[in-house]
Design goal:
One of its GO terms (molecular function) is actin filament binding. The chain has 344 residues and is of the alpha/beta class. 35% of the residues lie in helices and 26% in strands. The chain contains ten helices and eleven strands. Strand 10, helix 8 and strand 11 form a beta-alpha-beta unit. The radius of gyration is 30 Å and the shape is elongated.
Length: 344
């Protein structure tokens, strides 16, 4: 289940969507303002789709500002002209903006009409938005056919899990390997590339598959609220912080297990699948996981806790052991007069 923001299209945008498909508009730009999807700009047709592309699209892209762009191609299907959907979210835009645009992407496509969208492209750089970037995007698609990138990586992860299970020695208890859904693979790839900051996975116990629960941008102070208190979960969090004056972005894996509020079968499956999931993320997806944690409650996940786990303080000065003083003598000092008595 993907996270949705609840943001909807304004009435003016809905009206424009209803009239834009007649062929006169080449491109349109949509943004989020006052918790609504609104029309920001549109361009008319002047030439063929590739002749108009850079003129229309590059003019709509602004620094540090996410947006959605619908670009009309010249091909048609039974519903009319086909469109390219571009989701632009630059890395240096505000975290809250990136979170809102990521969570509203499905909504905007439904409002426009999914049947009209031939292709879609997610980009973080202006150089990827231009016509040359689009051709590169198309070449990548053809190179991975008939499998998509997510399907290819899913196949590799499953093979990695199988190899790990086969090579396990008989004297140890082998881990359990479940397939990972396409949606989960896609978001794991994105957080491995540090395009988003939070991914939550769950295990479908009945169908024996690892599914995506949530994926979007989130700040550290909101992390505790994402931890359920009735089911285990796997969490991947991109912890953005500073340490000794350096800005760092570290992926933290969190295995949340609320204890006996969940079934014995759930506890067993989550525990057994954890190692193979992590090996697939690290070996196949090349994800760099800086820390692996296990918690029982979300309240544990504070800024200070994560800082201490990643950068534990070193006790560089140890106090020298002080030998205890002997007990003080009681009473007056005793004088040995044995030699004096012998002389008498």
């Amino acid at each position: 289940m993907s996270h949705q923001t609840g943001i909807q299209a304004s009435d003016d945008l809905k009206l424009f969507f209803a009239t834009v498909k007649d062929g006169n508009v080449r491109a349109l730009k949509v943004g989020i303002e006052n918790e609504q999807l609104v029309l920001l700009d549109h361009k008319s047709v002047k030439g063929t789709w590739d002749e108009d592309y850079d003129r229309c699209v590059l003019d709509m892209v602004e620094p540090k500002q996410p947006c959605y762009i619908f670009y009309r191609l010249d091909s048609m299907n039974n519903q009319g002209y086909e469109w390219l959907f571009i989701s632009y979210s630059p890395d240096d835009s505000h975290t809250r903006q990136k979170m809102m645009y990521a969570g509203t992407r499905t909504t905007i496509k439904l409002e426009f009409g999914g049947g009209h969208i031939l292709d879609e492209m997610f980009t973080t750089l202006k150089s990827e938005v231009c016509l040359a970037g689009y051709w590169k995007h198309k070449e990548t698609q053809h190179a991975s056919a008939p499998l998509t990138l997510a399907e290819t990586e899913l196949k590799e992860v499953k093979q990695q899990h199988l190899d790990a299970a086969v090579s396990t020695k008989a004297s140890t208890l082998p881990g359990i390997s479940f397939p990972i859904s396409e949606a989960a693979i896609e978001e794991l790839v994105r957080i491995a590339k540090k395009e988003i900051s939070y991914v939550q996975l769950s295990i479908d116990v009945e169908n024996e598959i690892i599914n995506l629960e949530k994926a979007y941008d989130i700040e550290t102070r909101g992390l505790a609220r994402e931890i359920p208190n009735d089911h285990p979960r796997y969490h991947f969090f991109l912890f953005k912080h500073t340490h000794e004056g350096d800005y760092l972005e570290t992926i933290v894996f969190i295995y949340s297990m609320p204890g006996y509020s969940c079934s014995v079968k759930e506890r067993m499956l989550y525990s057994s699948c954890k190692a193979t999931l992590l090996s697939g993320c690290e070996d196949i997806l090349k994800m760099e996981i800086g820390k692996k944690l296990e918690i029982s409650e979300g309240s544990e996940l504070t800024e200070d806790f994560l800082q201490e786990e990643l950068h534990p303080q070193k006790n560089v000065h140890k106090q020298k052991f002080a030998k205890p003083k002997p007990p003080a003598a009681k009473g007056g000092r005793r004088i040995n007069n044995a030699s004096n008595l012998s002389d008498e």
